[in-house]
Amino acid sequence: SFSGAVRLLHGLTDDDVPWQVSVTTAEHLTGEDVTVTLVKDGKHNLSRPDDLDLLTETLESILAKVTDQ
Fold first, then answer.
1. Which residues is 38 bridged to in the sheet?
2. pTM score above 0.85
């Protein structure tokens, strides 16, 4: 099992994978540092400029945690 930090970003208007999959995945992870972010009007690929900004911010926050350890 994986117990590291996990960030799940999911669009609520994803036609390919229901957003509930991210919530269920988070429930099954053993780590304490798990966050699910639901993007209200986000599609499957989360490729709009605001979505890409969110992805970038999320990656930067995880990288900052890793480099601080």
1. 10
2. yes
pLDDT in tens, 10-68: 999 999 999 999 999 999 999 999 999 999 999 999 999 999 999 999 999 999 988 88
What is the DSSP annotation of 1-67? ---S-EEEEEETT-SSS-THHHHHHHHH---S-EEEEEETT--TT--SHHHHHHHHHHHHHHHHHHH
Three-class SS state of 38:
strand
Quote the pLDDT of residue 61. Answer: 94
Phi, psi of 10, rounded to the nearest 5 degrees: -145, 135
Q: Indicate the SS3 state at residue 19.
A: coil
